[in-house]
């Protein structure tokens, strides 16, 4: 019988990879401007994923104050570049402070202000190793379509808040955000070109690998 982890075990898992003072400062900036960054467990998972992929090029939807971006930059190749999109220029200014405090060279973080669905179509097809989405939840299915175009074969798309405060698993919850995230999960699970996994870290991290398609 599979048993759910007890709260103490969940907390231990979330805190297993400790955050440093730079990430703590980024979280403090986030709280000041009303941004909710991903949890440390999800951050550690993203860093691990960027490292496993030997990621050279990553797209992030939702810069925030740089918490998730810094986790990924620390897992990427030393010459890897993060392209991060956010509608709030002030948040991106704070993210730049986070990256500078961490000693990340400015050329490794390309921050683009604007709406994701307006910016993403301008990015290069098949160029990216990892796409991470933590933006407008109702746009998640559309982010998936863009991500699959942007990813190279073998690349991975990741979505934060895939459990959405325990609402996704409750069929009685029918608000627009929950419906969109639930629909995203269905699309990913039913797509034979993807290898999916839903990790119960933070508020849920949905990952899907874009499989290699054999040449005809």
From TrEMBL:
InterPro entries: Cation-dep_OMT (IPR050362), SAM-dependent_MTases_sf (IPR029063), SAM_O-MeTrfase (IPR002935). It holds the Pfam family Methyltransf_3. The keyword Methyltransferase applies. Keywords: Methyltransferase, S-adenosyl-L-methionine, Transferase. It comes from Nocardioides pocheonensis. CDD domains: AdoMet_MTases (cd02440). Signal peptide: none annotated. This is O-methyltransferase. GO terms for molecular function: O-methyltransferase activity; S-adenosylmethionine-dependent methyltransferase activity. Gene3D superfamilies: Vaccinia Virus protein VP39. It comes from the Bacteria. GO terms for biological process: methylation.
